[in-house]
From TrEMBL:
Chain ranges of the FPG-type domain: 222-260
Classification via PROSITE patterns: FPG_CAT, ZF_FPG_1, ZF_FPG_2
Classification via CDD domains: AcNei2_N
InterPro entries: DNA_glyclase_Znf_dom_DNA_BS, FPG_cat, FPG_N, H2TH_FPG, Nei2_N, Ribosomal_uS13-like_H2TH, Znf_DNA_glyclase/AP_lyase
Lineage start: Bacteria, Bacillati, Actinomycetota, Actinomycetes, Kitasatosporales
EC number: 4.2.99.18
Protein's name in the database: DNA-(apurinic or apyrimidinic site) lyase
Pfam families (alphabetical): Fapy_DNA_glyco (PF01149), H2TH (PF06831)
PANTHER family assigned to the protein according to its UniProt record, in alphabetical order: ENDONUCLEASE 8 (PTHR42697:SF1)
Length: 279
């Protein structure tokens, strides 16, 4: 799933292509909005909010989209062949005289009044890449449920907005704790530095096409997607297991030697997750 830095970059590209220009083509391929016509209106701006995209349009309208697992906005110049996927996967088309933005596989697409944006994003915590970023509030939110595993708390967008599964695993590695450690068991210095570290990682990557948390050219990530390869620090094989509440589990990576804290017990009748091909 795209994370805050990826969504920030997508918003930047959409803003550069559409903002300040009049829409000459508008096609929202969602039954509820199939008859909506935005042509003749000027795109005011495209703003990221956590993992959400808000395309604000003249007349007090906002097109709200969320990429979820594999959604994408692609931008094409006039006459360019669209290459984002088959036609039946297109959910939105916003065209100007010289650029066309095409939304593929968008699981969330809604047209709402700009004044009602809070209905879509008002539940989010401080945005790691937004003007509302408040590290003290983010820390307070994370510590609100001290028994909750750190990995789950980081993914909860109500605590702080923008972290996904990759940064969850990478942040826990950098803090040297497992994602299953209860938030309340974090040493005070770790809890204090966590919001700033998260923001630093996303800010460092928000303009990069390839995410990097290691500072090394030859290896972009410390643990995510690397099981069972050796840890870059100690050589111990990286491990992977599912984390979640049972209804929404995600592969989670960690080094059993570098990171301290609880790990998930084997689940009866369920074989351990096998690492996928190296990423």
């Amino acid at each position: 799933m795209p994370e805050g830095d990826t969504v920030y970059l997508a918003a930047k590209r959409l803003h550069g292509a559409l903002a300040g220009k009049v829409l000459t083509r508008s096609d929202l391929r969602v039954p509820k909005y199939a008859t909506a016509d935005l042509t003749g209106r000027t795109v005011l701006d495209v703003t990221p909010r956590g993992k959400h995209l808000l395309t604000r349009i003249e007349g007090g309208l906002t097109l709200h989209s969320h990429l979820k697992m594999d959604g994408a906005w692609k931008i094409f110049v006039a006459g360019q062949r669209w290459t984002g996927g088959p036609t039946h996967q297109i959910r939105a088309i916003l065209g100007t005289a010289d650029r066309t933005a095409v939304g593929y596989r968008l699981p969330v697409l809604e047209l709402l009044r700009t004044s009602d944006e809070d209905r879509a994003v008002g539940h989010l915590g401080p945005d790691l890449l937004g003007p509302d970023w408040d590290p003290a509030l983010a820390r307070q939110n994370l510590l609100r449920d001290p028994a909750r595993p750190l990995g789950e708390a980081l993914l909860d967008q109500r605590n702080l907005a923008g972290i996904g599964n990759v940064y969850k695993s990478e942040l826990c590695f950098l803090l040297r704790v497992t994602p299953w450690l209860p938030v309340g068991d974090l040493p005070a210095e770790h809890a204090a530095q966590l919001p700033a570290l998260a923001q630093w990682l996303l800010e460092a990557n928000r303009d990069r096409p390839a995410r990097n948390t290691t500072g090394r050219r030859e290896q972009n990530l410390f643990v995510y997607g690397r099981a069972p390869r050796p840890c870059l620090y100690c050589g111990t094989p990286i491990r992977v297991a599912d984390q979640g509440d049972g209804s929404r589990e995600r592969p989670t990576y960690w080094c059993p030697a570098c990171q301290w804290g609880p790990i998930p017990p084997p689940r009866p009748g369920r074989p351990p997750r096998q690492p996928s091909a190296y990423r």
